[in-house]
């Protein structure tokens, strides 16, 4: 009996000193790699948030979550690519257990944390 490939979470912490275009390009490249060897299941942009501790001398990061199905070979390629990609300050790939609840919707907290535009 064939089993379905497991779902993985890829959490990316991107350097906030990069412009938005470069950060989007990094995420797009990762998505293309996933779609080339797996299946993208979900994408969540959690925005810029303070980190619990400094990571590479940065106190904040642009958090992104990608959920996908993949073979082990794709995981190895992603790890290699992300280790050498400038602008990725940290990443983690986690295999989800069956029955894991969906990720939280942090977009509302990001919008609330953003300063109001002055008129």
Please give the structural blueprint.
Blueprint: E1 7-14, H1 20-37, E2 38-55, E3 58-70, H2 72-84, E4 88-95, H3 107-113
Antiparallel strand pairs: 1-3, 1-4, 2-3
Task: Tell me what the structure shows.
With 119 residues, this protein is α+β, with helices and mostly antiparallel strands. It has a single domain, classed as Alpha-Beta Plaits. The chain is 32% helix and 39% strand. It has helices at residues 20-37, 72-84, 107-113; strands at 7-14, 38-55, 58-70, 88-95. The chain has a 4-stranded antiparallel sheet. A hairpin with a 2-residue loop joins β2 (38-55) and β3 (58-70). The longest helix is centred in the N-terminal third of the chain and has 18 residues, at 20-37.
Shape: globular
Which structural class should the secondary elements be placed in? alpha+beta
Count of beta strands = 4
Question: How would you spell out the order of helices and strands?
Answer: EHEEHEH
Low-confidence stretches: 114-119
Question: What number of domains?
Answer: 1
> What's the CATH H-level homologous superfamily?
Ribosomal protein S6/Translation elongation factor EF1B
CATH topology: Alpha-Beta Plaits
Largest sheet: spatial strand order: 2-3-1-4
- Any idea what the radius of gyration is? 15 Å
- In terms of DSSP E residues, the strand content is 35-45%
CATH-derived architecture? 2-Layer Sandwich
CATH uppermost class: Alpha Beta
What does the largest sheet look like?
Answer: 4 strands, antiparallel
How many DSSP H or I helices?
3
Oligomer: single chain
Mean pLDDT equals 87
Helix content percent band = 25-40%
In whole angstroms, how far apart are the ends?
62 Å
């Amino acid at each position: 009996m064939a089993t379905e490939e497991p779902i993985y979470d890829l959490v990316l912490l991107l350097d906030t000193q990069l412009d938005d275009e470069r950060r989007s390009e990094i995420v797009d490249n990762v998505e293309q790699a996933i779609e080339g060897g797996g299946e993208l299941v979900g994408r969540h942009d959690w925005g810029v948030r303070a980190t619990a501790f400094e990571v590479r001398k940065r106190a904040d990061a642009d958090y992104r979550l990608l959920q996908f199905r993949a073979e082990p070979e794709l995981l190895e390629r992603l790890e290699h690519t992300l280790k050498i990609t400038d602008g990725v300050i940290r990443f983690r790939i986690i295999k989800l257990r069956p029955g894991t609840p969906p990720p939280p919707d942090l977009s509302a907290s990001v919008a609330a944390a953003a300063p109001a535009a002055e008129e």
